[in-house]
């Protein structure tokens, strides 16, 4: 008996729903509500009076949630082999099913799914601090990112720009250490309690470079004030680097997605019309690229208008007979060379 059809169906149910798949949509909404309720339950458990009054119900809800998340995780691992060939853990050299499943288990979202349930099982055998368990349970909030195209786009940008972002963070850390070192030597004698060591001065450096400025630690010497002002101005520029990198890359990714959709639209309307099958394919592509209906409809309208204009113009820029250039819109049968 082949389980492939069942596995394929489970994969499509677990993935963010496609238009028309009501079961997948219902499952997505169920998980989103369950994750949000888990967050509320974690916050409620920190209120001592609520924890004493509702402890049995909160614990029962936690068991129910863990069972659901465990079944979801196992189903995702089992159905990973039904993912499209374009997904990284389905590409070469991951040919065998166990290799694809293992590779999927190492993806960021799979690790988040695992982190959402492992603490509960570990607490059965190991004594955990209740505060740590509550903190780990809040990792379930990250699971919501799976159902947001915007979050997925941001994750894609961060992954592609990881080296550049790491370089920007490295520069920030270097400047932070240099700022703390400089302020240590400038203010050490004047304020030994606040700048008695470089690690102690790091607190001031973090507040200054981030332009937060709590005001609990401030320089009092003239040289220290001048140095602090310079570091504050420098911090504005340095902290703008990661934001600028992300904003630029996000804009580029959105443009690439629109260009990809526009290219496919131009290909399918080359014959002058859009069939229901072609519209369905374009809609699937729109959902994959994360474009909204308004953007997609605008691109389709522009492509159709462009195609209609070109139908009345000459397909040639040069005469196919003699090679001479043709005026725009001049029919080729008027020039036979």
Can you walk through the features of this model?
With 337 residues, the protein is mainly alpha-helical. The chain folds into three domains: 4-147, Four Helix Bundle (Hemerythrin (Met), subunit A); 163-250, Orthogonal Bundle (Helix Hairpins); 252-311. Helix content is 67%, strand content 0%. It is built from 13 helices and no strands. The chain has helices at residues 4-14, 22-45, 48-78, 97-105, 108-115, 118-122, 130-137, 149-160, 162-187, 198-209, 222-268, 276-289, 293-311. The longest helix has 47 residues, at 222-268. Mean pLDDT is 81; it is low at 328-337.
Cα Rg: 29 Å
Distance between the first and last residues' Cα: 69 Å
Indicate how many domains the architecture comprises.
3
Residue share in helix = 55-70%
- Estimate the strand proportion: under 5%
Give the class from helix and strand content and strand pairing: mainly alpha
CATH evolutionary superfamily of the largest domain: Voltage-gated potassium channels. Chain C
The string of secondary-structure elements, in order, is HHHHHHHHHHHHH
Largest sheet: none
- The average pLDDT is 81
Low-confidence stretches: 328-337
Oligomer: single chain
Describe the protein's topology.
Layout: H1 4-14, H2 22-45, H3 48-78, H4 97-105, H5 108-115, H6 118-122, H7 130-137, H8 149-160, H9 162-187, H10 198-209, H11 222-268, H12 276-289, H13 293-311
Helix pairs in contact: 1-3, 2-3, 8-11, 9-10, 9-11, 11-12, 11-13
């Amino acid at each position: 008996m082949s389980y492939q059809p069942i596995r394929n169906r489970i994969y499509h149910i677990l993935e963010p729903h496609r238009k028309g798949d009501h079961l997948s949509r219902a499952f997505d909404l169920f998980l989103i509500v369950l994750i949000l309720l888990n967050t509320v339950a974690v916050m409620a458990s920190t209120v001592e009076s609520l924890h004493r009054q509702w402890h049995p119900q909160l614990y029962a809800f936690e068991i129910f949630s863990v069972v659901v998340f465990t079944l979801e995780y196992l189903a995702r691992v089992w159905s990973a082999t039904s993912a499209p060939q374009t997904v990284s853990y389905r590409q070469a050299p991951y040919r065998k099913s166990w290799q694809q499943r293992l590779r999927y288990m190492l993806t960021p979202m799979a690790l988040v799914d695992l982190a959402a349930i492992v603490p509960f099982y570990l607490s059965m055998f190991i004594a955990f601090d209740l505060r740590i368990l509550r903190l780990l349970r809040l990792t379930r909030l990250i699971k919501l990112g799976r159902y947001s195209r915007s979050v997925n786009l941001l994750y894609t940008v961060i992954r592609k720009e990881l080296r550049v972002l790491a370089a920007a963070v490295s520069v920030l850390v270097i400047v932070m250490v240099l700022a703390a070192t400089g302020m240590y030597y400038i203010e050490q004698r004047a304020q030994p309690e606040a700048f008695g060591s470089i690690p102690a001065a790091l607190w001031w450096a973090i507040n200054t470079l981030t332009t937060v400025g709590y005001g609990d630690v401030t320089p009092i010497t003239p040289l220290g004030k001048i140095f602090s002002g310079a570091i504050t101005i420098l911090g504005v520029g340095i902290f703008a680097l990661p934001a600028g990198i992300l904003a630029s890359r996000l804009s580029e990714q959105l443009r690439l997605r629109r260009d990809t959709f526009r290219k496919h639209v131009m290909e399918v309307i080359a014959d002058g019309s859009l069939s229901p099958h072609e519209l369905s394919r374009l809609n699937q592509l729109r959902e994959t690229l994360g474009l909204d209906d308004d953007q997609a409809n605008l691109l389709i309208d522009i492509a159709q208008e462009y195609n209609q204009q070109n139908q009345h113009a000459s397909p040639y820029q040069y005469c196919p007979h003699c090679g001479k250039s043709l005026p725009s819109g001049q029919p080729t049968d008027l020039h036979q060379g």
